[in-house]
């Protein structure tokens, strides 16, 4: 069935370092991928997205990489700050799936000051 | 940016009662909205797709008679948890797409069933 999963459930980084969060997906039909940030007790917050016709997209301090060959997605956060501490989810959707967004397991990012 | 609200933000109810949760798109119209539930330290699990003017589409394993969904207008979807039990306690989150695929999420509703 469709699934999106993460390799690492917890990631701890030093403030100022770069963070890399990985995600694997299994649905070949997925053509849109999104990274969300969720703070405790709140709804997911959009960070960055990428479509299947791209392999890299950059935002402010964040970069998403997509490798369709191995069905792998990653989120890179540059100069990680304490405010980046949260749970990060990758998610996928497909035009053929009615744009339902399916979430991965999530990675908790701890930023040490 | 697009804003989605939920009401209430938290609710405590007795076992056997029904609870209604509202999801509103505040500055855009949404013919489709999505409902998720999230257990502590777990991911969001899609429950159903709410369709304006027609029946909701439920994911496999989700009881449609247990979780009633009504999408009465282009800005409002409601989720009613009927005859709630402690195992229904969870964080319920809705989302609405601004365009065809970019989802904007509500702040969530914490349901505790005693």
* Chain oligomer state: heterodimer
- Biggest beta sheet summary of chain A: 6 strands, mixed
Tell me the strand percentage band of chain A: over 45%
Total count of strands of chain B? 11
Strand content of chain B: over 45%
The helix content of chain A is under 10%
- Rounded Rg of chain B: 13 Å
End-to-end distance of chain B, in Å?
Answer: 37 Å
CA-based gyration radius of chain A: 13 Å
Largest sheet: number of strands, sense, barrel closure of chain B: 7 strands, mixed
Total number of strands of chain A = 11
Report the largest inter-chain contact: A-B, 22 and 26 residues
Number of helices of chain A: 0
Average pLDDT reading of chain B: 93
Sheet/helix structural class of chain B: mainly beta
Order of helices and strands of chain A: EEEEEEEEEEE
Contiguous uncertain segments of 5+ residues of chain A: none
Tell me the structural class of chain A. mainly beta
What can you tell me about this protein's structure?
The complex is a heterodimer of chains A (113) and B (114). Chain A is mostly beta strands. Helix content of chain A is 0%, strand content 52%. Chain A is built from no helices and eleven strands. Chain A is globular. The model of chain A has no long low-confidence stretch (mean pLDDT 89). The model of chain B has no long low-confidence stretch (mean pLDDT 93). By secondary structure, chain B is an all-beta fold. Chains A and B meet through strand 4, strand 5 and strand 10 of A and strand 4, strand 5, strand 9 and strand 10 of B.
